Amino acid sequence: MHMNKEFSIVQPEYYSKFQCDPIQCKETCCERWKIIVDKFSYEKYLQSDNEIIKEIVKTGISLNEAAISADDFALINLSKEMTCPFLNKNNLCEIFIHMGESSLSKTCKSYPRAVLLLNDEIERGLEVSCSVAAERVLLNKKGIYFERIKDTVKMNDLYITIPIMENPDEIEIIKEIRTEIIHMLQTRRIRLTERIARVGFFLNQVLEEIDLSDTSYKEVLLAIKKSKISMGQEDFRRIPDNVKVQGGGQFDYLNTILSMKFKEGDTIRFFSKGYIECLMQVLDAFSKVKNKELEVQYKRNYEKYLRPYLDNKSYILENFLVNYIFIYSSELFRLKNIWNSYLKLCVIYGLLKFNLVGLAVYNKGMNDELALKLIQSLSKTILPDKDYLDSVVRYLREEKLVEFTKILMLIED
Known about the structure:
Elements: E1 4-12, E2 36-37, H1 39-46, H2 51-60, E3 61-63, E4 74-76, H3 94-99, H4 106-110, E5 113-118, E6 121-126, H5 131-138, E7 146-154, E8 160-161, H6 169-185, H7 192-209, H8 217-233, H9 250-264, H10 273-287, H11 294-327, H12 329-332, H13 338-362, H14 368-382, H15 386-398, H16 404-407
Parallel strand pairs: 1-6, 5-8
Antiparallel strand pairs: 1-7, 2-4, 3-4, 5-6
Helix pairs in contact: 5-14, 6-7, 6-8, 6-11, 7-8, 7-13, 9-13, 9-15, 10-13, 10-14, 11-13, 13-14, 13-15
């Protein structure tokens, strides 16, 4: 029995225009990542009378020993080719064919939709790890704008994230902070890297103004207001263009952080095929440069091969960042984690540019097709891997790179 409920909903304008399009899809969502199955769907498949479904279920699904709720009750056992066993030879879903769309698991009904429940309001957007969604989200020249609508949501059909907070007031506080962050990221009169720097400066100011262990709702809102005022007075030309950090430069640190993915993150079997293709070109481009020249050559290659494209298409990375801040709000919804969230933002942006530079060198320039392929495939490979991102934050702390002026080294042009 499905529970339908009407909500006030905040969503980017692109959301209502999205529709799954297998013809335009560049990479199926039915391969190369961990697919969870809710208990209701799992039992439905077990009880199916269809011979094809019954045969696949025997080896195609197993109980999830790490399950914490009915929503992640079971796991799909991927084939040797790392695809869902319910996909047939024509890459069509046997569940959809023999049991109907209503029998798809919550995972299959939800993706690439990201849905958040905050008190009695729904927020929803799209994951750019889906290539069709990525095109809809990223290629919007005017930027991402949000709308408020009323809509009925099938609560039992979707994975809905509900942030856990010690203090319910934190929702309104984080919304206020997030609104300011998005406003800064969309301020196009200044270059994108400086916008990200302004976000860090703003969050740093907020954290300096409040005591996270004992701060009232009103005090935090006052701190945010003070930080906004100081933002307007701050001369951001003071932020050094080349932050010197003992131990290495931008290329060195980003290369190390990317290398950690192979040691600390999901195995390469879960890497997006598209990202592996991109990565091979990136590594090939950088392998042709002598070690002692890597840092200087990296900067030169950025200026020669990538910057001309980004100067004209900066809205693509802007849209990625705004979308990231919006749909991953649940990570922000604990005040104590805000700075870690900013560190991850800088890491992800730094890795995107690092890979884009390599791709641009290999292909002697950049274009929309290459940029979208990289952003989509990197998002599928990196963003779901929380263990890896947490290990990177620990690495940044060990290297003493977490201070505001030092973390900027990862994103500078």
